[in-house]
Design goal:
The protein is of the alpha/beta class. It contains three helices and six strands. The protein is 23% helix and 27% strand. The radius of gyration is 15 Å and the shape is globular. It binds inosinic acid and magnesium ion (MG).
Length: 167
């Protein structure tokens, strides 16, 4: 699907600055704790890579791959885990790293599944929060930007697997 890019919401510098702030706060909050960042693929790949490099405390990383059955502009309804967390996270402090939260269904599902593995704590950071679209209540410990109900692409986010590479 080819879509027309209508506007740039956040440029590279703006994103980098926000990630600096998030990373500083996370580094402070988790100092002295056994932190595992769990990136939610594929959308969070770029965010995760940038965020982890700005965090100043020791961190372990892992990934979970979640995808919705729908394609393109239809939001997730049924969530499929195609790659589960590989690390043993029992008793460790887990921070789920997601690129964009829309209805909240995906993150809510991952909260439930991850909680079953017995982490010491479980929180989430998202870069983009499409708050007006939320249908389930999901606690967000850290949020980059709140955005209106617009379909966004780039910085890891796709439309039918395209545009993830836009900076
Ligand atoms: P949720 O489960 O409704 O919160 O949807 C989360 C997922 O839907 C995200 O991880 C994206 O994969 C996808 N999504 C939601 N909004 C957008 C968008 O504006 N552009 C591209 N994908 C989106
Ligand atoms: Mg998608």
């Amino acid at each position: 699907m080819i879509i027309e890019i209508q506007e740039i919401l956040f440029d590279e510098q703006t994103i980098a600055k926000k990630i600096d702030e998030l990373a500083a706060q996370i580094s402070k909050d988790y100092a002295g704790k056994d932190l595992v960042l769990v990136g939610i693929l594929k959308g969070a790949a770029i965010f995760m890579a940038d965020l982890m490099r700005r965090i100043s405390i020791p961190v372990a990383i892992d990934f979970v791959c979640a995808s919705s059955y729908g394609m393109a502009t239809v939001p997730a309804r049924e969530i499929r885990i195609t790659k589960d967390i590989g690390a043993d996270i029992k008793g460790r402090h887990v921070l789920l790293v997601d690129m964009i939260i829309d209805t909240g269904e995906t993150l809510a599902c991952l909260f439930r599944k991850t909680a079953e593995k017995g982490p010491a704590s479980l929180k989430a950071v998202v870069l983009l929060d499409k708050k007006p679209r939320r249908t389930v209540d999901v606690p967000l410990a850290y949020r980059g930007f709140e955005i209106p109900d617009k379909f966004v692409v780039g910085y890891g986010v796709d439309c039918a697997e395209r545009y993830r590479n836009l900076p």
